[in-house]
Amino acid sequence: MLQLGTRFQTDLKYILIWSPPKPLYGYRRTKKSITGQKIFIKQKCPHFNCYISYDEKLLQEDHRNFDAVVFKVKDIQNIVAPINITRAPNQIYIFNSLEPAEMYPVCSPVFDNFFNWTWTYKLNSEIPHPFFNIFDVNNEIFGPKIFVNWTKQMDHTEKYKNKMRNKSLAVAWIITECRLKARHQEFIAEFKNELKGYNYTLDMFGPCGDRKCPKRNKKGCYDVIQQNYFFQMILEDTFSEDYITERMVKAMNSLSIPIVLGGSNYKRFLPPGSYINAQSFDMKKLGAIIDYLIKNPVTYQYFFDWKNHYYYMARPRSYMVDNYGSSHPLKSFRISGASPPAAGLGGCDRSPGCYQLFTPVNTQNNGWANLLFGFSARLESENCMYF
To answer: What is the pTM of this model?
Structure first.
């Protein structure tokens, strides 16, 4: 059995986590940050031949001896002058961020042609870090990924039938941050008005909602929703591609159909027939679908057949390993040499990558949808929402 203090000498890949001389806004590494190989062993990474360090003088006092250097977005977001660092010919520079550029924009031309790889929540990153994993019945990681081969014929089940009998309320929304309510206010107003025509309500839980969570915690809210509500809203706080947060896990592990609204291709993350994508319908159709499913419990139950084939687990943001097996790029990156720096990871004024706008799947000419997606597209242009 491997011990956490074990050191493997063969073919180690040394990775430096770069930090500025003076951390910005008090942001700095905590004492709990794990160095060496411990984190890879602790997190059961299939490739533990990596060595993490925050000390740029570890290898003969020369940072050029590291195989890779990781730059965290919070450390570089406000940098405008070139970084005082010299790159070795085969060294990999990695951009790391689990936040969308709307929150942490990096647009300085200093970073044009600077990074080789990205390590982000986006599924097309060299090191993808989604916020949750999808497992199949064999307990193997199934997704999320760009191309997902979902089971085409889900086995029908009625094992949840008794648990659904007490449902009598339409839609719930747990608001964890007040800014979410403000950002989605036009959609919410229109949605509540549509539900009112069917004599339904949207009940909002949390500090900015009209209802409080039982036991003063979110778990109490999820228990109430699973027992009493047919649907729950999952609205992301930013419209960035592949940005679907851990809150989706709670929704998928409950017995209420999620109504989603975000900037992602949800087919990469959720089984077909398990959710309702609000941007795929105009408001009247969305209201009609909700009403139909509430009044037709047999059809409603089919939305949970996917549970016979998959299950969801949140992936801690502190994870530094990629759980997708032998495809992990850190396995042999130094042997094959560094790939050329990627263009377009910074420089909003001239880099075409920064102007790649997100196109919604289907807004159906809705006023609220056009407003939200227009806002997102503007941010993509101004803040380099490319990572």
So the answer is: 0.77
